[in-house]
Amino acid sequence: MRPFASVPALLALLLAPLTAMGMTAEASAQALAGPQDPAGPPALHRDPYFQPTATPSSPDMPRVIIRNIREDRAGNVWFATFGGPIRYDGKTFTNFGDAVGLPKTRVFSLLEDHTGALWFGSITDGASRYDGKAFTKFTTNEGLVGNDVMWIFEDRDARIWFGTTAGVSRYDGKSMTNFTTKDGLVDNAVYAITQDHAGVIWFGTQGGVCSYDGETFTDLAGKVGRSFENVRAMVVAPSGELWFGGQQGAFRYDGKQLTTFTTKDGLLADFVGSMLVDRKGRVWMGHPGNFPQVDNGGATFYDGKTFGHVTAKNGLCSTNVYCMLEDKAGNIWFGSVDTGACRYDGETFTNFSAPAGLKK
Fold first, then answer.
1. What is the domain-level CATH number for residue 311?
2. Are 38 and 46 in contact (CB under 8 A)?
3. Nearest of 307, 308, 342, 351 to residue 323 by alpha carbon
4. What is the pLDDT tens value at each position of the chain, 360 positions in all?
5. Interacting residues of 60 by C-beta distance below 8 A, sequence separation 6+
6. Could you tell me which of 47, 33, 86, 44 has the C-alpha nearest to residue 64?
7. Do the domain assignments include residue 359?
8. CB 13 within 8 A of CB 23
9. How many domains does the chain have?
């Protein structure tokens, strides 16, 4: 079993993209891709930051980095992790890396589409569509713009959008259409995608926020008079307001006015790495914590008037939150970098993580 990599080293990769450290996009992609095969093209599945789990299935959630959480129509909770895709059926956590065609590969993003098929976005090995029996792979060989897939989104026309570190791909079920900065995208590193009530697609990127109305890309910076950096999360509130967050705090945009929220306004921390809107209309913001100490993390929720916080002091299983989900029962799930997952019913936390000190 390969030892667990140090948290600061892994956070450096997650929170500060290589392109932000002065590396070119090409160098970043090469660094993320891992070892090259001298006898042929890059071996996409060779991911040096992959965290193998101890067993294919376990009653506990492995202590691997969790990047996204979704619930399928059958009530299974799926986790996109550095150990691959993991499913919780209410009793057992099972690794589906081999089943979906992504063995030994980090998974960052996931989606259940309108047909019930599951999509998984990986680092170095593109995306995979899984119908419960077989998988279909999508990489640059199949037209995907890049093989590091940070986000997957289905729009109201059932088209699948892939946010990658090399731009955006849109899949209509037959072919891919790719968009990059050459087409008006504000930055090629795309971390979050959503669609507003008017049908406009929004992108959160390393270099800002932009929208696409089907014909033209518009940089939000030009509308609100300020730029944005490292935008990691986006949601649309029931009122139609766009919320997004990243390195500089959380933002609410109503189509005309931008409102900024930081610790001075009530956030637990300025870095917002994930978001959700719960059934009560509250906006939840997940905080990875202050790098590299990984402290001051947790979650903030906002009901439109006041802010509330959830931290380790309240029972949260970790000092950081990387992703969140509200399940069909109204529970909030939290995924972390170092302590697996836990679930919050509004009063009590249930920790599903493997005991500390045990191998993953």
1. 2.130.10.10
2. no
3. 342
4. 333 333 343 444 444 333 333 333 333 333 333 333 333 334 445 678 999 998 999 999 999 999 999 999 999 999 999 999 999 999 999 999 999 999 999 999 999 999 999 999 999 999 999 999 999 999 999 999 999 999 999 999 999 999 999 999 999 999 999 999 999 999 999 999 999 999 999 999 999 999 999 999 999 999 999 999 999 999 999 999 999 999 999 999 999 999 999 999 999 999 999 999 999 999 999 999 875 566 678 999 999 999 999 999 999 988 889 999 999 999 999 999 878 899 999 999 999 987 765 545
5. 93, 340, 352, 353, 354, 355
6. 86
7. no
8. no
9. 1
Indicate the pairing of strand 149-154 with strand 135-138: unpaired
- In a domain, residue 115? The reply is yes
- From edge to edge, which strands make up the β-sheet containing 298-302? 274-277, 283-287, 298-302, 307-310
Which residues sit opposite 170 in a β-bridge?
161, 177
Residue 357 lies in a domain: no
* Token pair listed for 16: 């500060």
Nearest to 307 by CA among 285, 336, 277, 331: 285
With a CB cutoff of 8 Å and minimum separation 6, the contacts of 22 are none
Domain span at 211: 7-351
Q: What does the H/E/C string look like for the chain? A: CCCCCCHHHHHHHHHCCHHHHCCCHHHHHHHHHCCCCCCCCCCCCCCCCCCCCCCCEECCECCCCEEEEEECCCCCEEEEECCEEEEECCCCEEECCCCCCCCCCCEEEEEECCCCCEEEEECCCCEEEECCCCEEEECHHHCCCCCCEEEEEECCCCCEEEEECCEEEEECCCCEEEECHHHCCCCCCEEEEEECCCCCEEEEECCEEEEECCCCEEEHHHHHCCCCCCEEEEEECCCCCEEEEECCEEEEECCCCEEEECCCCCCCCCCCCEEEECCCCCEEEEECCECCCCECCEEEEECCCCEEEECHHHCCCCCCCCEEEECCCCCEEEECCCCCEEEECCCCEEECECCCCCCC
pTM higher than 0.70 for the full model? yes
Task: Kindly state whether residue 265 falls inside one of the protein's structural domains.
Answer: yes
